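debug: dumping io for the single-chain case to check the tokenizer round-trip. Nothing else runs in this session.
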Amino acid sequence: IPLSLEVPNSKEAIIFRIDANQLVPWDTIQIADGVLKTELPLDSSGSTFYALSFDHGASLRLGIERGDKIKGSVSLTNGITDYELSGSDLSERLLAHYKPLRQTAMLMDSLDKQAATYQGLENAAEKNAELFTVYEARITKHRDDLKSMIEEEPASLANIFALYQSAGSFYLFDPMRDSTLFRSTSDAMSEANPEHPILKVFIQSAIR
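debug: decoded output
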């Protein structure tokens, strides 16, 4: 599957294939003139996932299927990856799931900086409580937005990664608390992708 990404200020990318139980190093590619060009092999499952890590700190996840032709761009802002791409339904779904995570990461970075300015103030506890209220509201919206996208396309294998998203150390979904969502989504994914190895591991670990 052809891949072409504009990656300014980066000279090297490490590409891993995401297997059912591990990340498998696939290749290290030198980036010439700010453009990463390569061909990603598709395995027998028909839907193959890759993780890309760039030397300037950006990272992203791709999902490829037959007929894909991916083009896009990658950048890094304040240590947070920003990317756009087209030409792959599965990768575009992963991107859609990533966008609310990026917004949450940006907010958390901003809140951390604000909290640092409150140190030593008499009303620091009160101001930090206000920041926590903002954080909680963002987490609720992040979770609701992601849940809506999962329910919109329950058969997409991208949902496996969405259901394990976290904001810092806080997981947005829990297999026990959100058992109905996990079960309905896994049923839809299983019907569309009955033999996919990553899905099999997901079902074994997350569905009670």
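debug: round-trip ok. The helical segments are 89-117, 124-152, 158-162, 179-192, 197-206.
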